[in-house]
Amino acid sequence: MSGYATYDDAHDSKYKAPHPVKMVTANKDTLEGYGTIVTDFDATEVEITPWPTSGWRKLYPGTGTMGGTVSGDFIYKWEGDLCKAVNKAVGGDYVTGRLPVGEDHQRRTKVLTREANYHPDGGQVFFPQNKDPFIALLALPGDDVKADDFVAFYFDGSFGVQIHANIWHQPVYPLADSAVFIGKQGAIHACVAIDFADEWNQYLSVPLQPPTI
User: Which reaction is the catalytic activity of this chain (predicted)?
Assistant: First the structure.
């Protein structure tokens, strides 16, 4: 899953120049296919994918979706040039990105990341506890994903998001120095991951400021 690759060599010249990720403002229309807007965390049910079958016979109705869900705080903090995150719902403790060389630690404009993952078993909800703006890096399903497929969605903090199953993502990036998100997701927590640096010899450069238009 994401968060376990080292970022020690993020500035190494052995990699190609980071790929700049395009940014859009998150709303109902732009999120279509990626996920849904969440305005009420408690009332939002996690989308659970029925367990896949291996033959032509169908699942018995009401089965294959009973793995349950887990929830907990997703705590983010910028420490120097690193973005760190702790997902208490699943016990994850991650480094999710590193600032480029020369980037002001207090006025961050972009972050480098080398990973993404998706959950085939269900959706995942990110909801800003204190209405902090954030960036969600997402790409539509497909194991042959490319750098150009990724989009940085800017959220102004007035609502959260539930990403659908199989959507490539990283933990979100807060614009503030620290932020807490309420999260929930399927308890099975299956992860399929990609390491851009290993596969593409390249990091992604994710913008950290609101769109100008």
Answer: (S)-ureidoglycolate = urea + glyoxylate
DSSP 8-state class, residue 14: T
Q: Are 173 and 134 in contact (CB under 8 A)?
A: yes
Total residue count of the chain as it appears in this document = 213
CA–CA dist 89, 177 (Å, integer): 22
What is the token pair recorded at 71?
Answer: 């929830």
Tell me the sheet residues that pair with 127.
182
Note the pTM of the prediction, 2 decimals: 0.95
Q: Using CA atoms, how far apart are residues 158 and 10, in angstroms rounded to an integer?
A: 33
How far apart are alpha carbons 151 and 22 in whole angstroms? 5
Q: Judge whether 92 and 191 are in contact, CB under 8 Å.
A: no
- Residues 6 or more apart whose CB falls under 8 angstroms from that of 54 comprise none
Gap between the Cα atoms of 197 and 168, Å rounded: 16
Cα gap 23→62, rounded to integer Å: 39
- Going residue by residue through the chain, which has 213 residues, state the pLDDT in tens, using 9 for 90 and above: 566 789 999 999 999 999 999 999 999 999 999 999 999 999 999 999 999 899 999 999 989 999 999 999 999 999 999 999 998 888 778 899 999 999 999 999 999 999 999 999 999 999 999 999 999 999 999 999 999 999 999 999 999 999 999 999 999 999 999 999 999 999 998 999 999 999 999 999 999 998 876
Which domains, and CATH codes, for the chain? 21-49+70-207 (2.60.120.480)
Contacts of 12 (CB under 8 A, 6+ apart): none
